[in-house]
Please model this.
Amino acid sequence: MLELTSVQVGYGNHVVLRDISFTVAPGQVLAVLGTNGAGKSTLLRTIAGLQPLQSGTIAFEGADLANTPAFRRVRAGLALAPEGQQSFPYMSVRENLLVAARTANARATAAEVEEAISQVEEYFPKLRARARQSAGSLSGGERQMLGISRALLARPRLLMLDEPSHGLAPIIVEEVAEIIGRLVEITAILLVEQNLTIPKTCATDVLVLENSHIVARGGPELMEGDDVVSAYLGI
Model:
């Protein structure tokens, strides 16, 4: 589905990612772990088309994305839910979802939009209950759910999640982790995290980034290894 080969990314002369190669397959939840500054968010931004490659290739479903702008990558089936629980705070939850649904498919009929929103709300019933509430008045966990829902309305085949646990209370992190585990029913997931709670709950595969390189990769049991945890924690 997604294939990165020898990817290098940087800002000017500063290299953030070097020789990054991996794949994501349908039904997979790949967790990318690493400390602050390891390049995790830059990786997602590069795949989404928001940060240019310096070298290497990124292919999605066999098509090279080198000259593909960000909006066409969304239409091709890639969606990013960025860090920060982004939404339109003065608009209602429903209005936020309507904007996302219309942006994803401007030609959709009213019935198709309603169906798409209803399908997303099956995973996030709290949002259905908060439909008339302003997005800015939601709790941190609810805003995170709204951000993921907006990305899902693009009907991606690969959903990229950037630090979905950021700023959330532990009990809410567990709830979000459970939801992400169910989302693999409809989309593959590339998950960037510092908090191990979510990857331990739902990841099928793990990569660890350190000093711009992949230093370890494997299954969920990798998160139990002392050497990997030390690298992950920056010890």
User: Anything to note?
Assistant: The radius of gyration is 17 Å. Strands lie at 2-11, 14-24, 29-33, 55-60, 63-64, 78-81, 158-162, 188-193, 205-210, 213-218.
